């Protein structure tokens, strides 16, 4: 995969964000998109080899549309400044998302502001066995990789049905249970980039397994 070419295309698209420009360069876009899909297919196989519960996800299904949804966000540009893809894609399962863009790249996983039923299940799991979850997210290698949970909006008080003195109240107040690793263009351009993502996936796996189990029990 020629990520240098991908970044170059995104920079030009960002400077000329219009349907007219895209129409003129659609052949280039499809070449980059198809190459990225093949690259995602390769990564998909590698991730399946390290996780027996992995849900195989073809690159064509994993990749997101490059068009912004103008119906709900009419003030956004027509096209995004990144290529996004979600692997290990299965309903009611924490995602593994790859974001490659000119204004920041990262890989993330877990649940970002999930619906109430999922959030309730995660909180119930933490109430029942929060010690196991804390062991996962406080593990030295986990902290070195992710730093901790994504810092997102929290409840100001205890969730309904939980005491404000609960031993895991700081975790229970979270609305998001996800982690993220920021990526530099230098890392992405390296030949071992896929292996880097596999390492991140391995480190994230106990975290995602805990969450996925929480919402299926």
Mean pLDDT metric = 93
Structural class designation: alpha+beta
Helix run count = 9
Give the beta-strand count. 4
Query: Order of strands side by side in the largest beta sheet?
Result: 1-2-3-4
Unreliable segments (pLDDT under 50, ≥5 consecutive)? Answer: none
What share of residues are in beta strands? Answer: 5-15%
Return the string of H and E elements.
Answer: HHHHEEEHHHEHH
- Rg (CA only): 19 Å
The major sheet is characterized as: 4 strands, antiparallel
* Termini Cα gap: 40 Å
- The portion of residues assigned to helices is 40-55%
The gross shape turns out to be globular
Can you describe this structure?
This protein is α+β, with helices and mostly antiparallel strands. It contains nine helices and four strands. A hairpin with a 3-residue loop joins strand 2 (95-101) and strand 3. Helix 5 packs across helix 9 (193-214).
Summarize the structure.
The chain is 49% helix and 12% strand.
What's the topology here?
Blueprint (H helix, E strand, L loop, with lengths): L2 H13 L3 H6 L1 H23 L10 H4 L19 E6 L7 E7 L3 E7 L4 H22 L2 H7 L22 H4 L4 E7 L1 H5 L3 H22 L3
List keywords for this structure.
4 strands; alpha+beta; 217 residues; 12% strand; four-stranded antiparallel sheet
């Amino acid at each position: 995969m020629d990520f240098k070419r991908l970044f170059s295309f995104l920079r030009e698209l960002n400077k000329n964000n219009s349907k007219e420009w895209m129409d003129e360069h659609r052949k280039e876009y499809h070449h980059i998109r198809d190459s990225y899909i093949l690259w995602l297919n390769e990564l998909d196989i590698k991730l399946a080899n390290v996780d027996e519960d992995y849900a195989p996800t073809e690159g064509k299904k994993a990749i997101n549309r490059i068009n912004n949804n103008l119906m709900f966000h009419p003030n956004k540009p027509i096209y995004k400044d990144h290529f996004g893809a979600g692997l290990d894609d299965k309903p009611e399962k924490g995602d593994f998302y790859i974001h490659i863009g000119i204004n920041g790249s990262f890989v993330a996983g877990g649940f970002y502001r999930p619906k109430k039923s999922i959030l309730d299940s995660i909180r119930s799991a933490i109430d029942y066995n929060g010690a196991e979850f804390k062991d996962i997210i406080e593990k030295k290698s986990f902290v070195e990789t992710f730093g901790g949970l994504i810092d997102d909006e929290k409840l100001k008080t205890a969730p309904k049905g939980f005491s404000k003195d609960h031993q895991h109240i700081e975790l229970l107040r979270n609305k998001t249970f996800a982690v993220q690793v920021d990526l530099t263009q230098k890392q992405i351009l390296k030949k071992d980039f896929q292996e880097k993502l596999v390492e991140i996936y391995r480190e994230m796996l106990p975290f995602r397994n805990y969450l996925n189990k929480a919402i299926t029990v």
